[in-house]
Amino acid sequence: MRARDTFSFSWRAIRGHKLRSTLTTLGVIIGVGAIITFMVLGGAFSENVLGNFDELYGDQPLLLVQTQTPLDDGFGLIFSMTPIYTEHDIATIEAMEDVSFVAPLGQIAVTQTRVGGQQVTGGVSVSATTPAGFTFDTFLDGEAFDMGTNEAVINRQVSDRFDGVEVGDTISFTREGGVVTTVTVRGIIDEDIPNQPPTIYVPVDPHYQQIVETPRGTNERAYPMLVIGADSLETLRSAQDMARAYLHGDSDANALKSDRDTILVQTIDDLVQQITDLLDQITVFIAGIAGIALVVGAIGIANIMIVSVVERTREIGIMKSVGATRRHIIQLFLVESIILGVIGALLGVLLGFGIGALGVMALEWPMVYPLEWVVIATGMGLIVGALAGVYPAWRAASVDPVIALGRE
Amino acid sequence: MSTEHSVIADSISRTYYVGEPVHALDGVTLELPAGSFTAVMGPSGSGKSTLLNMLGCLDTIDEGTLTIHGRDVGDMSERERAMFRSTELGFVFQAFYLMPRLRAWENVSLPLLFGEAPTDGRRARAERMLDRVGVGDRIDHLPNELSGGQRQRVAIARALVNEPRLLLADEPTGNLDTKTGASIMELFTELHVEGTSVVLVTHERYIAEYAEQVVHMVDGRITEIEPLGEVGR
Ligand SMILES: Nc1ncnc2c1ncn2[C@@H]1O[C@H](COP(=O)(O)OP(=O)(O)OP(=O)(O)O)[C@@H](O)[C@H]1O
Ligand SMILES: [Mg+2]
User: Fold this and answer.
1) A328: which chain B residues are within 8 Å (Cβ-Cβ)?
2) Looking at the whole model, is its pTM more than 0.80?
3) Which residue ranges form the domains of chain B, and what is each CATH number?
4) B142/A66 Cα distance (integer angstroms)
5) Which residues surround ligand 2, an ion (CB under 5 A)?
């Protein structure tokens, strides 16, 4: 019997019961739908969070120092904005052998920003740092500010927000509390990071005033985040180890942080890895659910196939009486079951893309098409169908034609 | 053993065990020459269908030997019997037994699908067979779009499509009115005249009289083989 004939026979049997066939494949549809939905959302999430972050910054000898706060419920990453990294910590790390610079990153809370006649409320963030903080940035125009001045470096997003801001233009921002500061743009950088807001960078001196009392009894500026530059990629790991040993040891930060927080000293790769790990955890969870749905799907298909074998006992008898062998009958029912599995998988893929696209739209993430998962899902449908069909096909092949063609 | 014989049955038996044993066939010995036309008659439960199933290799014999077209059927594997059925034998049933979702020509070409012969030109062959049995104008109809007589003609076309040497019919006119039954019997007569061996089970004497001989059965045994003389022309 040719493959095409087998296929056309089985296909007709399925089409004979459209509704039943569709309901039968529901388990597979749900299982595969869940997998594809998650792959779309997960892919879109990492695309949104990471973009080509890795490519842009992955080969730069950078370390990020941040404070991680545990989340009360569920998965996720949250960084604390408490200023705990003091001037003393910065100086100590900067003195380390493999470290070339340490740039603090402080947040200045602003309510409104004005360029010329345009004023916006919110949406623009102001960060305080040092000129060393721009070591690895690409300047589209101008250069880094000098310390102790009213100069600023802006990212391209600021320029876009205000329909073009150029070097030499002045920007005013109003801090929470009402103090207005006016700065002159000295340079514009290209910060091609997904979700990076329009940001104005100003020198910590004189603009950043978060002062904390250190455990040593002094009053110093303190920051929620540090960027450490190592001498080279080769020395990055040793710089990381040293900085971490200090920050986890007798640093001001370690004394100032809250007990439940953790100080992270990460390379860009570590950061990407952390997000990837999080996605992997969710993947395992989803795979479990999908696996259960697929098992249920297989049982559903097997169940309907057995019903179908019983209903078609007469037809099986007829086929045997005109020369069908056990093998022919097994083929027919196995192919039917596999078609059901694959149809379920394909409908599941459509459903998954549909739900995924809706979710991505709602979250304003970029849409991704995990095509390799379409292939994997179809393969899973095929395997589920084949496994589900083994027993019913065997039952069909074992039909005794004498009994099948016996009394009405 | 001779190929001049279509069937040589030597005291074949078949016992079914449903509670106490039922001797459906109890030592049947029968020789049917190639090209013969035989009717089988007997009361209900006398083993007529069982005998036909044996000749059709649908069922296995418990005792005795059965040779069809020179081959010992008892020695064959299940697979060999299936192949043998598709090439050497044609079946016609009282209830037609067409596949409900297949069109007339597809039903007719069904045995070709399972055979090992090349399956090119299936439709043409099926059409020729449907023409031959007088339903050439119903090629694309589904079984439920056909009358009983037309259905039986399609079933006969299906039985003939592999050009079998032995045609087995179990009460082929049982579900048909007298006139339609007679026209089906004329078709069998023509096939017999063309050289096909025919064995036909019936309850009706006038149907049996189309044959050359009548095998009478009671309780799984042959009680009489009654010759009727030449038929056809
Ligand atoms: N598959 C089976 N299992 C058990 N007993 C069977 C089976 N097939 C037939 N029999 C028994 O064998 C005997 C002969 O049955 P068979 O069908 O050959 O009779 P028949 O002569 O064709 O009768 P009818 O004229 O009613 O069709 C009956 O007693 C029947 O009950
Ligand atoms: Mg009978």
Assistant:
1) 114
2) no
3) 5-227 (3.40.50.300)
4) 75
5) B 49
